[in-house]
Amino acid sequence: MLSLLALVIPLLMGVIALVVPWRRWIGWGSALSSAGVLGIGIALSITTSSHAPVSALHGTLRADALSSFMVVVIGTVSLLATLQTPRVMRREIAEGITTARRASYYVVLMQAFITCMLTAVLAANLGVLWVAVEATTIATTFLVSHSRTKKAIEASWKYVMLCSVGIALAFLGTVLVYFAALHSGVATPGTVSLNWTSLMAIAPHLNHGVMRLAITLLVLGYGTKVGLAPTHSWLADAHSQAPAPVSALMSGVLLTVAFYALLRFKAIADAALGVDFPRALFIVVGLLSLLVAAILLIAQRDYKRMLAYSSVEHMGLLALGAAAGSSLAIAAVLLHMLGHGLTKSTLFISSGEIAHAEGTTEIAKVKALLARRPVLGGIFGCGLIALLGFPPFSLFISEFTMARAEVNVGLWWVVALSLVFLSVIFVSITNHARHMLLGGDSSVAVPLNAQSVVVPLVAALATSSFMGVSAWPLLTLLRAAAHVVAR
Amino acid sequence: MSTSFYVGALELTAGAVLVCAVMTLWRRQVRTIVTMLRFQGVALAAVAGVLAWHEHDLGLAITAALVLAVKGALVPLLLRRVIRLDPRSRETAPLINVPASLVSAAFLIVVSYVVSSKLTALAPSAATRLVPIGVATVLVGYFMLVTRRRSVSQIVGLLLVDNGIALVTFLLTAGVPLIVELGATLDVLLVVVVLQVLVVNAGAQHGSFDLDEMRELHD
To answer: Distance between CA atoms of A12 and A9, rounded to whole angstroms?
Structure first.
């Protein structure tokens, strides 16, 4: 019942925004709906981390500990993003960038987007998961092109094209898994479905040749949506053109929802093929993503694109963690998803404010932020420190644990290589940050008068650092969730 | 339905899907290409229909009707609108000329027979032996995507990929569960709608929609 409610709340909010003419409370309503989703996520987590998975709608929806954790991640980041809606929309309407009608559409699409992501993580059927992930592309296209500039339309065209073509491969992969299941020799023909539980039950009997092809297609296909190299190129375009809260939501959770799909399929492939083949695939795409991110970050000129490429880096790290595949590694991967969601959405939202205040997204044209805009610059700087993996923020502990888990399974060379890439990324981002933040004269400071920006973002950073010091409220959940897909 | 008739009908309809795909590379008039795409949608629906009849599968029969409505009628209709709105789209602008494209298509068909052999080997039957045709359609679609530069040509490439995957799905597994099939077909329709709206928006705001000018975003 709870899982059904999680879908109904944002859907209902979307319908309200569609039929009621734009009012400011609609913006607050969308934040309230996200808070509701977060609440349901927590309730689901409490149930599923100690008890059996829960189903709804005759088994169409199924929430185990992993799904519940993902609902929490989606709820948290969408709360951060939707809290910005009333202010951003009022500002855009006042400046004539958008109209009341399009502000309504913005809320409708945001709610549709959130509903699709929730459907993806709560679907019992891996085919429905695919449909939901593809539907997120459709819901987000017009969010990316919200500003209707030439660049925004270019970004959304590339986004739809690349993601649709990429994710078509994931569909082919899903079909091949189904084909292998039909001919596994152990299941009676009428009972075969794409349900996670039934697939896991027969996974060891799936045909090797077909499964190898299937998991390769799935990694390439969902990898497009995750933003893993070699099909990462849409990410920087879309993230730099979309409104800041949309970038926050896309980078903070959409990528990890697609990664969730990969985790599920990897578990099936692990059971069918043994760990070696899927591990090799994940290592290749993971290291390649780190390499691409490192190269493109060195001479990056745009700070929104810098954040986007940092997402490519973090998705690469997740892929390497998943390659290790032990329960320790998967728990760290999940913690990393949450930590990255909090940090990256904070950074995107604050970068949106910086872009609005400074009128540019070029790194070279923004100087001495800490002196001129202490609050905004401070949040942006703290976010970058968290993103670079400094303690006490949670990305430090999750990156450290992933590396440890990788060494534990004999992948020390992967850790060594990724450290090389990470140090290049570290130096590049620090360099850009130094240029943007430091220097200047603090006597010209401009106060920031927007509580709805400051309070949620500071809270997000505080949560992230709290999780870095003590992950206790999450430990049982992380353990239970990792157990679902760990080897 | 007798076995030989079933095999013949399946081969004919599946073959027609690939022939339409190759025709889209051959013709330069975008209107003709959209007509080819409509024929392909009809042929794809016929494959599903033949299989549904043979397997007595109601779900697959519903899928066939859906495919006929969406890919045989609605999508071509939407594409004609894009051509009207984006006049530059009327002729394709191939980066690789037509004869070379056709030779490449022949090569891709050979490749698809090689990669599909493992799939056929797991469950050899009249249907799975035709899987390479579906894979070839997918590859021709990718080829179209990377070598054609007009908005409609790119959408057609995307749809060829999608039709090819649908054909593989029908031949391998007699269709995925109905709910997934419904969702997947609806997603395709919506993607085409979204792309059409983007062309319309670009036209309304900036006068034209030109993929060649889409070079502002890069690193």
So the answer is: 5
CA distance A274 to B97: 46
Q: How far is A466 from chain B (nearest CA, A)?
A: 36
Same domain, A170 and A34: no
Distances (CA, A) of B90 to A87, B26, B85: 44, 15, 10
In a domain, A142, yes or no: no
Are A171 and B202 in contact (CB < 8 Å)?
no
How many domains does chain A divide into?
A: 3
- What ipTM was assigned to the predicted interfaces of this complex? 0.93
Judge if A263 and A410 occupy the same domain: no
| One domain, residues A292 and A437 | yes
Task: Name the helix (H) or strand (E) containing A72.
Answer: helix A65-82
| A362 lies in some domain | yes
Query: Collapsing DSSP states into helix, strand and coil, what is residue A62?
Result: strand
Last residue of one domain, picked from the residues A257, A272, A287? A272
Residue B156 at interface with chain A, using a CB cutoff of 8 Å: no
Strand partners, B29: B91
Task: Tell me if A145 is assigned to some domain.
Answer: no
Pair (A10, A115) in one structural domain: yes
CB contact under 8 A, A182 and B138: no
| Residue where a domain stops, chosen among A272, A301, A332 | A272
Q: Which residue of B has its CA nearest to A137?
A: B191
pLDDT tens, position by position, for chain A (487 residues)?
788 989 999 999 999 999 999 888 899 999 999 999 999 999 999 999 888 888 888 888 999 999 999 999 999 999 999 999 988 899 889 988 888 889 999 999 999 999 999 999 999 999 999 999 999 999 999 899 888 888 888 899 999 999 999 999 999 999 999 999 988 888 776 677 889 999 999 999 999 999 999 999 999 999 999 999 888 889 999 999 999 999 999 999 999 999 999 999 999 999 999 999 999 999 999 999 999 999 999 989 999 999 999 999 999 999 999 999 999 999 999 999 999 999 999 999 999 999 988 888 899 888 888 888 888 999 999 999 999 999 889 999 999 999 999 999 999 999 999 999 999 999 999 999 998 998 776 666 677 667 778 889 999 999 999 988 887 788 899 999 999 998 7
